[in-house]
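Sample intake sheet
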Amino acid sequence: MPRLISLNARKAAHAQQTDQIPVMLATIRHIELPEPVYLSSDNTERITDEPLVYGTRHQGHTYLFVQMGAVWPDDQRGSAPKSTLVFENVTPDMAKPLRAVLSPASVDLTIVMAETPDVIEARYLNLKGTLGTWDASAISLDVGRETFANEPCPSRRVTKACFPGVFR
């Protein structure tokens, strides 16, 4: 099914030159985090002067700017959307949470334009972190939906106690 986006976003995507910038907003949730982490791929506005912090305000939340590269989620027929977030210029202590977490984080990705951050161009909810890798300069986080092929069918084991009609 095609995704509907605004006319301004389509014009910006097909223009040779434009001052309209698409912004990826990521909301990361995990049971070990006290509150969600809000990250933005664009320094739309100055949030504070001391310390100097830039970010994007979207629907009442402040998304902090980090140097983040993102592959937009794909809409392939027959496969779940998947995306890759790459956080650049990292410090050694930024990889510690990735090493300590055993369960996947939940990630919501929202794509907006920098001039109109409250108009949602695309939204991908409840993506799960599937793979986290890191090196000295970048942290890469793969997120996606679980495919239905991973669901067991039938959900229970076929035993005499559960399915007596099979064993007559």
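Comment: The helical segments are 7-14, 96-100. The chain is about 10% helix and 45% strand.
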